[in-house]
Records
---
Amino acid sequence: MLRIARTFAIQMESNTKLDREQLAALPRIESPEGLGWIDDFEARTALLHGWAADPVTESPARSVFVLVDGKVALEFSGTYGTARPDVAAYHKNKALTAVGLVTRVPMRTLAPGGHSLQLGVVSSDGKGYYLVPVTVEFFVSG
């Protein structure tokens, strides 16, 4: 079970949006790891850029969410499904073209100190989620 601290998820606008209870009820799929990457997190502007996909079907995820300090953070929204031809080319899979994401992390809601970000990927069938094996550490000054 996921521990949900606040309400914010990057949800794919064209697919089913999951509410707090649905997201909390999803089991974590331990293997394989989530398919994706955090390309950039600029703490000054709080912008996070990356991509994510279902590692089993190698297709866009049903939904993507951000974990802050190991808890699902649901207070902000972003865009998922932007064009990432570089990802599709690297994986030699055209289905991975629309897997880009961008969001702004609400830094004002975080306490001063060290924090971490990680991406969660809801499987394309919506039956579970994977964690992307990339964690970004950052510091919020007081």
Note: The first helix runs from residue 20 to 25.
---
Amino acid sequence: MRGVFAVVLIGLLFFSGCAPKGYTTAEINSVMRIYKGEVVSARAMVLEDSGEGTILGAILGAIIGHQFGGGSGKDVATAAGAILGGVVGSNLNKANAQELIIRLDSGEEISTLVRVDREQGFWFRPGDRVRIFVRDGRIVKVEPSFK
């Protein structure tokens, strides 16, 4: 029973990192500057796993692998589960992104890397009008501007 609980707990921790990122309570009443511009260049990228997916996948795989075999077979199953879990976790934690060069309406050009939402599947193209949200000198998000 404890093994099942551990697997479920680690699974929840692992997949909570896949949830869409929204705002936090720390952002209430914060001020963002909004710039408008046009996409000049858009290049597809892949964001590699930062290590979190690999580590959590390996732990989860080791726990599952440890449920099989006996004696030295149990050790082999645990190691194999850790390796397989690490590979799967790393692949699940990769994300699609785009490197954008945007010409602001002021004439200035900026470059940024934006994560592509898997469900939305929206990709920016050269010529797209965008709004860029900036807080404390950091781009918070880039979204299509339909006006």
Note: The radius of gyration is 21 Å.
---
Amino acid sequence: MMPTALRSGEERSVPGAGLGPRLQAALLLVEDNAALRQMLSWELGDLGYQVRAAGGCAEARQLIERQPVCCALIDIRLPDGDGRELSAELADRVPGLEIVLMSGAHDLQPDPGLAPHVRVFLRKPVNLQRIHQLFGATGAHPRQCVSNGLRVP
């Protein structure tokens, strides 16, 4: 039986590649390409992330209002906005949020001085092992998640 597509706004942990030790961190994934969003959700879910997947900026804002996250993987070019602006907004709303920006646009250059809330800018295709190492280095897990300034148990 083929797995069903992960719709934006849906969260699920589905077996994937098994790239390393599992983290139990809530992760916001913002990617407008549905197939890539599904693949990343599965692979990140296999690593133990509780993935909250959004197809754009508006949906990401709604998801983060409902459930706290520790880290975010955000595409820069989104149909309803710019991922850099979204990342700045989310960093203001969720202090301590670890953010990785990504883009498949080859003409897009990373800012020489990334905003302090952004750990790194990656070009697509992204290396999940690298992302896992970046978020793993923060030690992010649910007990450290912060939402609207309040610690979440």
Note: The chain has one domain: 26-151.
